Amino acid sequence: MEWIQTWPLYLEVDTFILVHASLPRIQGSRFGDIELCPLRKEGSTGFHTCLWARPPEIYPSFDQRLVISGHNIVSQPGPGKEGVLLIDTGAYRTGALTFMRLEDRTFHQVRGKPRVQS
Length: 118
Description:
Number of helices: 2
Oligomer: single chain
Order of helices and strands: EEHEEEHEE
């Protein structure tokens, strides 16, 4: 656990921001900011926005970089709202692990056996 806790909450790559769930929202705005990631924990639960946010609490970046978000399972990867791509196809449940090649924004899938049977 100590090693995992050293991992970054987001990754910046050119015009993209990759985050497990969402960027924390800038107060009074409809946008998020990576600068708030180290600060934005929910007081009562300790959950972190970058790791645990669910729609509609998923925010695009104020600086127009595309936010690529997982954590929220979708049947097909694609736009969640303007400025946000949702790519988690629930590999543990569906057997479909989805990834996006950043250079050309193409989606690819690897199929396997789901860990949880429906």
